[in-house]
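Input sequence (309 aa), recorded before submission:
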Amino acid sequence: MDHTLQRQGRAEPDGSGQDVSAVLIAGPTASGKSALALEIACELGGEIVNADSMQVYGVLDRLTARPALEDLARVPHHLYGHVSPRTAYSTGLWLSEAAEAIAGIRARGAVPVVVGGTGLYFRALTGGLSDMPPIPADIREPLRARLERDGIEPLRRELARLDPAMSRRLRPADRQRIVRALEVVMATGQSIASFQERRGPQIIDPARARCIVIDPDRALLHARINARFQRMVEDGAVAEVKTLMSLDIPAQHPAMKAIGVGPLLEYIRGDLILDEAVERSRAATRQYAKRQMTWFRNQLGAEWQRIQS
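Predicted structure, token format:
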């Protein structure tokens, strides 16, 4: 398949006669999106911006499949490995940093090539995400700890008291949305519904961008996932998890939920043999890829060109 965008100065035609102000590349894990982004960035003289919520973290170089050093040297890359695993990073923080990076890229006369597998990042970037308030750590972290300790039911009852209308809208087992709604009402005194009605800023107009979503053959994707996780282990993923352990990070922090961390922790502690940890991680990655593909299929509009890799 020809992915070429002919280069004509600061903006690039997409084959339809329209100028392209940016390139957005979404796809499931192990689909080849980073390689495609590098190819296009090299063709355009562009710079790459990470849109993967786990690749922002330091330490987890191999385990999150960040670009190799030789790829990083070919074109400028932004927002990779720059966040401490101790940090509870958020979509709002990413959007602020991505907007700054994209502004700098454009100021240098280059084309931003945004690539990743986190659908909410793309929605935020194109103005389709609600403008949510920041949640202080002294509210977020105790709630997450209570969720791990007591389960969702006590938090659901608290949400019903503080925001009954939103509580009725959410499924009783929807842990993520219940905790999120409770965080917002506790931090602001307002229902999350009032924020959901507001749209955030549009950093990239999808009508002027080239939007690509990779939709790979499932059997081929599974084979890639299986082979890639084995390479991760051979290249030092276990040592990365040992380093993560040494930082004594709370289990509810996002970095601790990176795929592979849990099974490899069990291996390090002697609760699993390595082959079991690898297979559990492969299975979790396959399940995650399925969720990503479903999200992209249902949430990305007609402006997104679907390709196979």
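Checked by second reader. The domain at 218-292 is CATH 1.10.287.890 (Helix Hairpins).
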